[in-house]
Amino acid sequence: MKNILKFSLLLIISVSLTQCRSKSSGNSSSLTGWKFNNPDYGNYIKGKSFDNSKPPMGMVAIEGGTFTMGHVQDDVMFDWNTTPKKMHVRSFYMDETEVTNSEYLLFTQYIKSVYPPSDPKYKHIYNSVLPDTLVWRESLGNTNLLSESYLRHPAYVDYPVVGVSWLQANQYCKWRTNAVNLKILMDKGVIKNIWKTDSIDFKGKNTFDTDVYLNDPYALFEGDSTIYKKGLPDNSRRRRGQARPARGSFTGRHVTFSDGLLAQKFRLPTEAEWEYAAKALIENREYNNINGRKKYAWKGKYTRNKSKRQRGDQLANFKQGKGNYSGIAGWSSDGSDIPIKVKSYPPNAFGLYDMSGNVAEWVADVYRPNVDDKANDFNYYRGNVFKQKMINKDGKVVIVDESSIQYDTLPNGKVIPLYLPGRIKYTPITKDQTYMRRNYTRADNTNIGDGDKNSSLDYNSDAYKRKMYNAPNGSKIERDSLGNIVTKYDSKPRYTLISDKTRVYKGGAWSDREYWLDPAQRRFLPEYMATNYIGFRCATDRVGQLTTKKKTARNSRR
Q1: Residue 515 contacts by C-beta under 8 Å, 6 or more apart in sequence?
Q2: pTM of the entire structure?
């Protein structure tokens, strides 16, 4: 008995020592023996273990995997636009609903407060993010009331925002990144509450930007360090004779990218990510096989609910037929004749709402008629323009100032800022940086292998001489002495609606027939245009391992 007790005691001690050794080894280099976060070894930083099990606010985790990208039903349009291709998508996070009117209006109110349109320096910024409410107007329809009420009336606060162009959706994603990270730093006590700080005028270039903070925290707020309360614990020791920091001054160190505290950049989902998330093939899985392909975002081949309690109810908001947007009065087919409140229908297997119906959604990709065999089968995306931070002659990163705001006039006459004040300016990479590379050879990869002059079939042949439409002259907008746009069109004929400024949108909408509810269907529109049936939702990268769940054999019959 004594021997057993001795053996047990020795076992407990050895396990404890092993745990202590394994715990301490994480604070030192396993290859050099140098200690991290230790002033005796240079105080070199190593990030702590990162937990990626909690999705960002309003998002759900999408576990990556393989799927067949493309259509599963008859190609009634005969455009060969959705030829099936096997693809792999990495894990990511995605908004469970489309961005609503209330959420987008928060963005516009912020822009108006920090870039007041009454100030001549910012006069075009606020208007550049406002949704186009006139998309509701019809030449032969009594819909003008929706132009006045849909965006701002409290009855529609939880309805998906529409009238937003692809460019505006991207601006929202950038702002959301900064808004989320600003709150993280305020919650951590690194930055004071900017709305309660009188010393800083939170306008123009004094707004918060994540990239600027990570590059140089003191480049924000005109170098006023009083905005910072305290940082993360700093292990560096104060030398003898060195004065103590003033009371209330910044102590510790600033947050770095290696700390893993800041949110990843929000963005539009790629076409492959959106389609993969919409199909949610995990519910059609039996072990490592897929039991049939899905026609809609939900399981089954019909648009009506099969459950006993809700039998016959529509599973999405779409157009039933000519002149039939909601059904017969007294027993509505789908509950709405325009976009409906988000979460009005059941989610798909990933927990995403309205991936089929309600409003179509912008995705990140530049449109091309097909995804060919040469396309990358790992996280496919068309539209990469590789850029780098602009560096001035003094070797410092260029930050846009009020005096250096550059604007661009779109083909429809709208004026947008290329960069907002207080943000880092980027420039395309140079040829020197692509020399001897095998993975890419130029900065702009938008029309690699498809759509450019070299890869277009018979580009200059007589077969294409007939003019399809008269395109607006987007190269230069001319105005008269009163500032009005001179409506001028190209003198040269155009042969296609597709350009490098044409973006994909996915999913059926309230105004679409059932055919477009298939997540594989794809359509396109210029990135500067907006409609009353296209909205958007955000995505962000999931860093770390594919999934944190325990691996189990899952099947559809459990």
Answers
A1: 73, 76, 508, 521
A2: 0.86
